[in-house]
Design brief:
The chain is mainly α and about 525 residues long. It contains 23 helices and no strands. Helix 3 runs parallel beside helix 15, helix 8 crosses helix 19 and helix 19 runs parallel beside helix 21. The longest helix has about 35 residues.
């Protein structure tokens, strides 16, 4: 394909629009006098629709457009069943943690999730551990996103891989340096473009396949099992997807998304309760449409791409776009995975920057030493520096980077899940439990992934999360009770109950002393 093919025109229009939004968001941010609040959480001013779209765009990634549909092409509708738990992520995260995190965040002035954890456990060691793990896993995920996005861009447009990395990675780093408000506004745009890309791809698949009925009839005749049913139409892909693996998906991409800090920080940024309720509804609809829609299109693509490409399942969607779509539609469609890449990267970058300046920097009084202007400059420089490092690593797509990216998602969940969830809802949880839970769960998960150890067909997120929970409970009961000042902030109702019980205990002791006189 020529470098000057019309396919690149929508891409350049999209990149120019992102830069325009960045300038607009920078103008809006000047109205907020608190730089740190504006830069890291947009001054807690997000509306419901924007909150929902930025959450979906952060969660969706290039794999949602490439790897997921490619595997679905191979495994059939069983992979759609595997992707189904992703429908609940937005609703579940906002419904369980949204109100609690927002109230506590305002109460203590938290700008990051680590701010909340720091106030809850009063442990410098825990905050440093979480911040370091966040930086390592985020960097791996950013590199993986850049590699995946650049590869599909190169495969479809014919441009050099490195040119693709430098093009949209540089744009991402540039607009992310403007702060959180720019990130969420561009995320909202990216979520809409991801939907548009999915629709254009669906239209092209049905048109190239003759009709939906014709595609389904063709699929029903492939890989027919002994009972006369095609393996592609079974929920477990004829045994290729064990039920234990399908159940594991409810943890990996469902319930355990409560431990993803890049999503959790969104709970600190909305304006009022009505926005939270609206975001729960919109996020469920959009996330369900994208995650289920794209994997379903991957299965239907088998009616058009009849043989697995030599490059593997990741080449299914690029081949579909190149050979079965007009240049204009292909250009509109390719904006979808690029938008998914850039929205995910921008959210990871801004969270990584906050980990350096807010979380690690606070441990050494960095904000106080730098002052407001110094923090502003340091935040922008840190965001840009982290982006440049990720770009440099992405220019040489080693296989090991891809594998690190695959378990970084689960590693973040094992790291943040129990300190956040138990810390917000169980008053007895203490710093010993948090530290032991993080260390135990993360060590179990990383070792099992590195050594390729598995318990049956369960995904390693299951033992990682369970070990983390057991270690958290063990550490909590070995340690002491949280101080009264922590209960006053996080569990005022429990503190009142404890005070009432203390008064009743004192009254009973007084009565006993009076009876013995």
């Amino acid at each position: 394909m020529s470098e000057f093919s019309p396919i690149v025109i929508p891409v350049f229009c999209f990149l120019a629009l992102l830069l325009g939004i960045s300038l607009y968001a920078t103008y809006l941010s000047r109205r907020n006098h608190s730089f740190q609040s504006e830069y890291f959480i947009a001054g807690r001013s997000l509306g419901g629709v924007v909150l929902a779209l930025t959450l979906v765009a952060t969660y969706g990634s290039v794999s949602s457009f490439v790897s997921g549909p490619g595997v679905a092409w191979q495994r059939g509708f069983g992979w759609v069943v595997f992707a189904a738990p992703q429908i609940i992520t937005g609703f579940f995260l906002l419904g369980v943690l949204g109100k609690k995190l927002a109230l506590i965040g305002r109460r203590i002035g938290a700008l990051t999730i680590t701010d909340v954890i720091k106030e809850r456990y009063q442990s410098k060691a825990l905050c440093v551990l979480l911040s370091v793990m966040l930086l390592l896993f985020f960097t791996a995920m950013i590199v993986g996103q850049f590699i995946g996005g650049a590869q599909i861009f190169s495969a479809i447009t014919g441009w050099d891989y490195r040119a693709g990395v430098l093009l949209f990675a540089a744009v991402t780093v540039l607009y992310t340096s403007s702060g959180f408000r720019t990130v969420v506004l561009t995320d909202a745009l990216c979520a809409v473009l991801m939907l548009i890309g999915m629709v254009t791809m669906g239209y092209s698949i049905i048109e190239a396949g003759g009709s939906l009925e014709h595609i389904m009839e063709r699929l029903s005749q492939e890989e027919v099992m002994e009972d006369g049913v095609s393996r592609l139409f079974t929920p477990n892909s004829g045994g290729l997807l064990p039920w234990t693996l399908l159940l594991s998906a409810w943890l990996l991409v469902g319930f355990c998304t409560l431990g993803l800090p890049q999503s959790l920080v969104r709970c600190l940024s909305y304006k009022q309760s009505s926005d939270l309720s609206r975001a729960m509804l919109v996020a469920t609809l959009v996330c369900g449409a994208l995650m289920i829609g794209m994997t379903t299109l991957g299965v239907l693509a088998r009616g058009v791409i009849t043989e697995l490409p030599a490059q593997g399942t990741d080449a299914v969607i690029p081949n579909l776009i190149v050979h079965h779509m007009s240049p204009l539609l292909a250009g509109i469609t390719i904006v979808g995975p690029i938008a998914a890449t850039m929205s995910t990267v921008s959210s990871l970058l801004i969270a990584a920057s906050s980990a350096v300046i807010r979380d690690l920097g606070v441990q050494f009084d960095l904000p106080a030493k730098l002052g407001n202007r110094g923090v502003k400059v340091a935040s922008i420089i840190t965001t840009a520096a982290l982006g440049v490092i990720a770009i440099a690593l992405s220019l040489h797509p080693y296989d090991i980077v891809v594998w690190v990216n695959m378990f970084a998602f689960g590693g973040l969940e094992c790291t943040f899940m129990w300190p956040v969830v138990l810390g917000l809802f169980w008053w007895r949880m203490n710093k010993q439990g948090a530290i032991l839970g993080v260390a135990g769960g993360l060590l179990c998960y990383v070792l099992m992934m590195a050594l390729n150890l598995h318990i049956g067909s369960w995904h390693n997120i299951v033992p990682g999360i369970l070990v983390g929970l057991i270690c958290s409970l063990l550490g909590t009961y070995l340690g002491g009770r949280p101080p009264v000042r922590i209960l006053r902030i996080f569990f005022p109702g429990r503190l009142l109950l404890e005070e009432q019980r203390e008064q009743q205990r004192a009254q009973r002791q007084e009565l006993r002393r009076a009876a013995t006189r």
